[in-house]
Amino acid sequence: MANATVSPATIRPHEAAHFGALASEWWDPAGSSAMLHRLNPVRLRFIREAIDSHWGGDIRSRQPLAGKRVLDVGCGAGLLTEPLVRLGGMVTGVDAAAQNIAVARAHANAMDLDIAYHAGELSALDDGRFDLVTAMEVIEHVADKGAFVHALGERLADGGLMVLSSPNRTVRSRLLLVEGAERLGLVPHGTHDWSSFITPDELRELLAAAGLTMGTPRGIAFSPMRGLQLADDMALNYIVTVTRNTPLQPGV
């Protein structure tokens, strides 16, 4: 449900066009991105816990990312990007759709938040490496997932942390996330291609090939009583931390 911003070999122009056309409604909690608004607090909880665990920070701190560089890939109009700034990060957001970046910049300016936004390819971003790299609901929208994961790894600083999330490719996700959610209007029609969903095992293999190690994934499940929440059930969606196996070589 986010946008794909990747290397030239993996970007899908029709994906960027699809999400760019929805840019004006991105910040409307009752609009086409309503599901993202419900999902965002769950993702942020996982990210905050991952930050505290990875860097051993004070769980009471309001700005655990102070002094750290953060990259939000497939940032859309900034729904996750802005909270990362409020957590103290020096944040860059990149997205394939120029319409999304225009909305993201306008919203950040209105909120008086300093965010470096870029429209276009991740490979074209000449901004070094980052302590935290996030790509939420993005990998399912790219054509070459291996190239995408490699590009993410190139942006991750030594000792850094990556957080990825994706729908899982299961029978239940096809019935509920694609056929059900789109038929009921919970997400815009054409948002998901179930065949492009990736399983945790497949993602782990891609990350390993890029010299990255995947942590234990957590499910993002739905309960009629509690709504979306972190859970052991990964049938619909999952979120995971990623770290580098070995330090990058100078100049790589």
UniProtKB/TrEMBL annotation:
GO MF annotation list: 2-polyprenyl-6-hydroxyphenol methylase activity; 3-demethylubiquinol 3-O-methyltransferase activity
GO biological process: methylation
Reactions it catalyzes: a 3-(all-trans-polyprenyl)benzene-1,2-diol + S-adenosyl-L-methionine = a 2-methoxy-6-(all-trans-polyprenyl)phenol + S-adenosyl-L-homocysteine + H(+); a 3-demethylubiquinol + S-adenosyl-L-methionine = a ubiquinol + S-adenosyl-L-homocysteine + H(+)
Enzyme Commission code(s) on record: 2.1.1.222, 2.1.1.64
SMART domains referenced in this protein's UniProt entry, alphabetically: PKS_MT
Pathway membership: Cofactor biosynthesis; ubiquinone biosynthesis
Listed InterPro entries: MeTfrase_dom, SAM-dependent_MTases_sf, UbiG_MeTrfase
Protein name per UniProt: Ubiquinone biosynthesis O-methyltransferase
Gene source species: Croceicoccus esteveae
Gene name of the record: ubiG
